[in-house]
Amino acid sequence: MANTNELYKKYGSTLNRCELFQGMDEKQWNDLLNHFHEEEWPRESCFINHQKFLFHFFIIVSGRVKMYNVDDFSEKEHTLFLLKKGDVFDLFCLLDGVQHQVYYECIDPLKVLAVPMDDLRDWLKKNPAYYQGFLSYAGKMMRMLEENVSQLIFTDISTRLLKLLLSNVDYSSNRLQHINDLPNKEIANLIGSTRAVVNRHLQKLKRNGSIKVSRNKVQIRDISILLKELNNQNKKL
Amino acid sequence: MANTNELYKKYGSTLNRCELFQGMDEKQWNDLLNHFHEEEWPRESCFINHQKFLFHFFIIVSGRVKMYNVDDFSEKEHTLFLLKKGDVFDLFCLLDGVQHQVYYECIDPLKVLAVPMDDLRDWLKKNPAYYQGFLSYAGKMMRMLEENVSQLIFTDISTRLLKLLLSNVDYSSNRLQHINDLPNKEIANLIGSTRAVVNRHLQKLKRNGSIKVSRNKVQIRDISILLKELNNQNKKL
DNA sequence: CATTATAAACTACCTAAGTAGCACAACAGA
DNA sequence: TCTGTTGTGCTACTTAGGTAGTTTATAATG
């Protein structure tokens, strides 16, 4: 229990931002955290269809993981979600208890809180009031996936790239976050394209003065140009 | 109550195949069906971002509806789901209570059982044992959306068309079902392409003897050729 | 039966995106 | 400092898929 209190003290601010567990107070958190333990995974750890995720559920407290899948034939990668502090995984397994055919790789050294799936499910059964938070979160996830599908069908690569950039701007500092230190290849994986094509579009944005590019680094120079560019994309059709 | 019993008698076999409400017996169904009423919508009825779906939840007992969305700029359509007997909507709204920006159109004359969203949510709160079915179903839906994303990124139109056809074959009769009477345009909307391109690929399949095409009709001639074709697609890369 | 509407079939063309290959820069480790 | 590795920037080329427009077939309607 001392351990539990410690976890809440250490990570309370992160946990309270966690959408999946909305509206829980410290007492309730401590009750739940009883079943958790802390884990650290080094950078570049990679989990390929690992059983791990069928039996434990994780909350990220620091670092990034990409959840991606790989096409059997072309061996191309596609990053489904770039998970970060406050995100959880694997929700797919939690919901239906079926193994999720998907890969994980740590972009940074990762710290997670881990709980056995069954403990979490039991806790839910005993506290059915929290089912609603899980349902809402599932709904939100479905909307994100649906939005993803729409973008893939309706928009071209340069639009998808612009949207990716704009959706990762921290508007308090006007800085790019989460994806600012990724190589072109990883950016390509996020929008379903290839390094060469993404680079082609980044060059265009560099030339019009909206971004700055260097090795493993993309920085925002002028958001207004990006927004104008996105507007033009739409009008084009 | 007489009315309720009637609903179960009429549609029990459909309801029992409904994944969302797994493991319910007649008594429980009748308890739930108390809140339902029957509705009929004519063919080609169209609902555009209608509040209707925020306040009522529907189970289809006969006919097909497409859930689709439209790109604001290109005005292209994409059919997200072709819902049929035993399917429900709108799960997005049920889960998180937020309006779902999506269109509906009846392909056939439609019969649905309707229940006020809040009644269904109340029923769930009183019968928390059934939450698990809803979570599982949400998980399944997420997997479908994820699979959709993967297909869009990894595979070309001809592969997507082949998969669409093969996933709609009724293997007891070797006949195409659900999509067999759609015009090329609607098939295109299902895989995120255009009428002309879909037609191009259908012609190829017609020429190799795997399908038969006529006005508003696609029929399977030889599944083995389709399967072989799908195999070749994969090897191609 | 004639008229109209809708869908299918086909042709020609255009373009975005994928592909391959190479030179160069940045960085890490020995 | 040397060396191997990884990422960027660029050129040249190929191609699937989107686009536009026309003709032909099929069904529905009066």
Automatic annotation (TrEMBL), chains A, B:
<dbReference type="Pfam" id="PF00027">
    <property type="entry name" value="cNMP_binding"/>
</dbReference>
<protein>
    <submittedName>
        <fullName>Crp/Fnr family transcriptional regulator</fullName>
    </submittedName>
</protein>
<dbReference type="InterPro" id="IPR018490">
    <property type="entry name" value="cNMP-bd_dom_sf"/>
</dbReference>
<feature type="domain" description="HTH crp-type">
    <location>
        <begin position="155"/>
        <end position="224"/>
    </location>
</feature>
<keyword id="KW-0805">Transcription regulation</keyword>
<dbReference type="InterPro" id="IPR014710">
    <property type="entry name" value="RmlC-like_jellyroll"/>
</dbReference>
<dbReference type="InterPro" id="IPR036388">
    <property type="entry name" value="WH-like_DNA-bd_sf"/>
</dbReference>
<dbReference type="InterPro" id="IPR050397">
    <property type="entry name" value="Env_Response_Regulators"/>
</dbReference>
<dbReference type="GO" id="GO:0003700">
    <property type="term" value="F:DNA-binding transcription factor activity"/>
</dbReference>
<dbReference type="InterPro" id="IPR000595">
    <property type="entry name" value="cNMP-bd_dom"/>
</dbReference>
<dbReference type="GO" id="GO:0005829">
    <property type="term" value="C:cytosol"/>
</dbReference>
<dbReference type="Pfam" id="PF13545">
    <property type="entry name" value="HTH_Crp_2"/>
</dbReference>
<keyword id="KW-0804">Transcription</keyword>
<keyword id="KW-0238">DNA-binding</keyword>
<dbReference type="GO" id="GO:0003677">
    <property type="term" value="F:DNA binding"/>
</dbReference>
<feature type="domain" description="Cyclic nucleotide-binding">
    <location>
        <begin position="20"/>
        <end position="124"/>
    </location>
</feature>
<dbReference type="InterPro" id="IPR012318">
    <property type="entry name" value="HTH_CRP"/>
</dbReference>
<dbReference type="InterPro" id="IPR036390">
    <property type="entry name" value="WH_DNA-bd_sf"/>
</dbReference>
